[in-house]
Design goal:
Blueprint (H helix, E strand, L loop, with lengths): L12 H16 L8 H22 L7 H15 L5 H15 L7 H22 L34 E2 L8 E2 L16 H19 L4 H14 L6 H33 L11 E4 L18 H6 L2 H8 L10 H16 L1 H4 L2 H21 L13 E9 L5 E9 L10 H7 L4 E2 L5 H7 L3 E7 L12 H14 L4 E6 L5 H13 L4 E7 L12 E3 L5 E3 H7 L5 E7 L3 E8 L2 E2 L2 E6 L1 H10 L8 H9 L8 E2 L2 H11 L8 E2 L4 H4 L3 E2 L1 H4 L1
Parallel strand pairs: 5-15, 7-8, 7-9, 9-12
Antiparallel strand pairs: 1-2, 3-8, 4-5, 6-17, 10-11, 12-13, 13-14, 13-15, 16-18
Helix pairs in contact: 3-4, 3-5, 3-6, 3-7, 4-5, 4-6, 6-8, 7-8, 10-13, 11-13, 16-20, 20-21
């Protein structure tokens, strides 16, 4: 008895009965055990142990049996979703009938749960009797309350669930498998009590497929599912439970999406359409109160960031979240959930608050595993190949082009080994800016972020503004830039040129011009140029011409599936370098490494500029391309080094803000 696993006082009944039967048999056999001190002591010790164990069990919470869990789950479901007809009440009557056949094996706790469910069923039946037209099938007019008899029951089976069969008219439906075991014999039958669980689950699935439920109602479903899954289930029953659980998740995601839509309609101002671009300027020296300040570095950026919540929920539900997520993405999720939880828009919306808090709980659970993971900080490998070439345009301007291919397209590309060998040999360490130059950057570092939205319904259909919000925050807080963010789907070439010229007239020492094209233009884009809504273009070389007189200039252009860069130091223009993804490579990258955002390259730029590990403290413009290449391929490239030899790309440009203070 010391080694037996006894968790209920009901389990002690057969033990005491066995002791009594043994002693009675000894007396009938004229065994004088009472004359033996050792025998008397053994019997006394055993009875004392039983009594002590009984007191111990009575003083602590009892672990519910599988039968009790089924009955409690049924009771919770009946209370949360009261049947509206006799037909709906039938499933609970059948549970009682099923358990009544097992009454000889029911514990005291099981019987209490049985009586509570029976009482609730009878009470609901009385309520339904007030509307006789709804009472069909559950009770015959002459039935008595003490004898609950149910008619033959037919379960509606949702798609993609195991089949049901009825062995005969007196038995409930039974789960069956279409396959057989290795010996060709039918799979082992499912226990009767789990048949009851399966029927309850099918009823739940049917409800979830027929109507929408609020988050509190979904909480009730989850409580029931948790109770039903507290004991190991037959594999087939477990599959049905997984389907029900998945449907609850689908409802929650839909509720989140509806809340997001409603929040946008109520809280987000319409996109401005005046001729002048939407611009917002912030000083790098301002320290905003995170909990109270609702100003955005990027217009409408918060609403766009809120749209990331459903995909965060979806990803957190995956068991391999840790294995398929980079440290950068984990930091992004942590920051986004923190910002959303502080937002007044979220705090004033109970559905959004619930969605954010549930995501934070899931995220915290994953982080408990991540803290001890050997993969911490490691990049997720992307199965792609790298090739490229050096070309020269009609004006004699040099261009280095990298191409990343993936998926089935790999066979269509030949790796240019000669080019790769030449492109990455003899690296030159980044030339750090002098202390005087870095001192001149303090308060005189400017950045202009352009985004021409080309989504049919605006920013809510993509993540471009959320990406720019991250870039804005990194440039501001880590690299000391004063930033102007321009978001306008009707931005004209003239307006862009005028804004750049106005910034140049302020005589900055360091200038970044960043173009973000979340969707490619309808016509073939001009090479090395930013295309506007009316198909006019602003060439990167023309931007450098507008920036004449600025000591250090870098131009980056995220073209959705390509990234271009060109720079200049003291008027000396560099070559252009680009990295482009094929459709296959973009799909591989989005699903394996860059899943949080629609874009690929802007998040990579943010990741590089926000790194705090062994990344060199001074980076050059070319490092952006090199980091993108090494992140999206298996080709290792050292950071803090230039392979092009162009001063406009190899001079120090990215330096943390404390170094320029």
């Amino acid at each position: 008895m010391r080694s037996a696993k006894i968790t209920s006082t009901s389990q002690l009944i057969p033990i005491t009965s066995m002791i009594e039967d043994t002693l009675q048999a000894a007396d009938q056999g004229n065994i004088a055990w009472r004359r033996s001190p050792a025998a008397v002591k053994a019997v006394g010790d055993t009875l004392t142990m039983v009594q002590a164990l009984q007191k111990q069990l009575e003083s602590q919470p009892q672990e519910a049996s599988e039968v009790e869990n089924i009955l409690r789950a049924a009771l919770e479901q009946l209370k949360a979703f009261p049947p509206n007809s006799g037909g709906e009440l039938t499933q609970y009557i059948e549970i009682l009938d099923e358990m009544q056949e097992m009454q000889d094996n029911l514990t005291r706790e099981d019987l209490i749960a049985y009586q509570e469910l029976q009482k609730a069923v009878l009470a609901r039946h009385k309520e339904l009797q007030q509307s006789p037209q709804q009472v069909t099938g559950a009770f015959s007019p002459n039935s008595s309350e003490s004898g609950l008899k149910s008619p033959q029951y037919s379960t509606a089976v949702p798609p993609n669930t195991p089949a049901l069969r009825a062995d005969n008219g007196d038995q409930p439906p039974a789960l069956v498998r279409d396959d057989e075991d290795d010996e060709g014999e039918p799979s082992r039958p499912i226990p009767d009590e789990e048949q009851v669980v399966a029927r309850m689950l099918f009823q739940m699935i049917d409800k979830l497929q027929r109507q929408r439920f609020t988050n509190p109602e979904l909480d009730a479903f989850e409580k029931i599912l948790k109770r039903l899954s507290s004991e190991p289930l037959h594999a087939e029953v477990g599959q049905v439970l997984a389907i029900a659980d998945e449907l609850v998740g689908v409802h929650r995601s839909q509720n989140v999406a509806d809340s997001l839509k409603q929040s946008r309609e109520n809280s987000v101002s319409p996109k401005q359409t005046q001729e002048a671009p939407v611009a917002q300027k912030e000083s790098a020296d301002e320290e905003a109160d995170e909990e109270a300040d609702e100003e955005e570095g990027v217009p409408n950026g918060f609403a766009n960031e809120l749209g990331l919540l459903p995909r965060i929920h979806e990803r957190l539900s995956l068991p391999d979240f840790i294995q398929t997520t980079t440290l950068f993405e984990i930091k992004c999720i942590s920051k986004i959930l923190h910002q959303l939880s502080l937002s007044h828009d979220v705090q004033s919306n109970s559905s959004l608050t619930t969605a954010v808090e549930s995501a934070k709980v899931l995220f915290s659970q994953h982080m408990q595993q991540y803290s001890g993971s050997a993969k911490e900080g490691a990049s997720v490998l992307v199965p792609t190949i790298l090739t490229g070439m050096d070309v020269e345009d009609a004006d004699g301007h040099k261009l280095r082009q990298f191409t990343v291919a993936g998926g089935e397209e790999e066979d269509e590309y030949t790796v240019n080994e000669t080019f790769l060998t030449e492109a990455f040999k003899n690296p030159v360490d980044v030339k750090p800016a002098s202390e005087d130059v870095q001192a001149s950057w303090a308060g005189r570092s400017r950045a202009i972020l352009f985004c021409v939205e080309e989504y049919p319904e605006g920013s809510e259909n993509g993540t471009a503004l959320a990406e720019l919000m991250m870039l804005h925050d990194t440039l501001d807080k880590r690299h000391g830039f004063d930033i102007i963010s321009v978001v306008d789907d009707k931005l004209s070439l003239e307006e862009a040129r005028r804004l750049i010229s106005e910034v140049v007239q302020e005589k900055p020492s360091r200038l970044l011009v960043y173009f973000h094209s979340p969707m490619p233009p309808l016509i073939a884009p001009a090479p090395k140029a930013f295309t506007f809504f009316d198909n006019t273009v602003l060439f990167h070389s023309d931007v450098l011409a507008l920036c004449e007189g600025v000591p250090s200039v870098a131009i980056l252009h995220d073209r959705s599936k390509a990234l271009d860069i060109i720079g200049a130091v003291d008027g000396k223009k560099s070559r252009s370098i680009s990295v482009a993804l094929t459709e296959g490579a973009a799909q591989v990258a989005n699903t394996s490494r860059c899943w949080l955002f629609d874009g690929i390259f802007t998040p990579l730029v943010v990741e590089l500029l926000g790194r705090e590990d062994d990344t060199p403290t001074t980076l050059c413009p070319e490092d952006v391309i090199n980091f993108a290449v090494t992140s999206l391929t298996a080709h290792p490239i050292a950071l803090g080094a230039s392979y092009s030899g162009d001063e406009g790309l190899s001079a120090g440009f990215w330096v943390t803000a404390d170094a320029t203070a």
